């Protein structure tokens, strides 16, 4: 009986010991392969993070697909989840009005905060007709830096630095992916510049003031119907002024963006017997666009086709 008890005890001890070894081994493996938790404020930031980090990170885009980001506010649930993040990436330049409030509640020893637009020379937005601030920051800067591929490349470099800081063992992986993204953006930039040489006109009438950096980069003149905020209501005098400009310059195309009401663009187009075309500021993707594999680069090439149509490109 005593031998039987000793034998059973030995078997149990060996079983528990083996299980403990397996648990320890699994824990060691998991600690070596644990993915970074990255939160991004809206689509362009998510695009950068996904392109560079790929499967080395769990990346959550805070703003849902199909939602216009200018006046979006994070829920308490998202703010709680953000506390567990390793990296928080936001555009800055006043785009995310809620960012400062959220960052104050983060443990900055745990979460690396990346203001992606840091180091980019900002341009000021046009004054609102009613004299109110744009609602982005006290300096009334235009926050839409990412619409320029040149600027998005700079934002990607800031994200790369943060990834290396938080996960140095994968530095080579991140640099390789950044280089691939950089080449895509360089080609996009080169293609736009080449096409712009053939534009016979340079004025673009946009649904809101989102293309200032794009216009500056490629020698265009932006005439926005609304200000920095797409929720701004233009006055009748403003609409009449744009209609006159279009007639004077023989402009036949008015641009509208995704997630922005086309009402005023359509009104102006009717007045000038023109046409409405899409110029997408890449604020975000719809669920259908996500499923189809559309991304920032394909959005910009679609924009280029419409710009060539509207401005009399060679193609």
Automatic annotation (TrEMBL):
Alphabetical keyword list: Coiled coil, Signal, Transport
Basic and acidic residues composition-biased segments: 132-143
Signal peptide as annotated in the record: 1-20
Origin superkingdom: Bacteria
Classification via SUPFAM superfamilies: Helical backbone' metal receptor
Entry keyword annotation includes Transport: yes
Location of the region described as Disordered in the Swiss-Prot/TrEMBL record: 124-144
Family to which the UniProt record says this protein belongs: Belongs to the bacterial solute-binding protein 9 family.
Name by which UniProt lists this protein: Metal ABC transporter substrate-binding protein
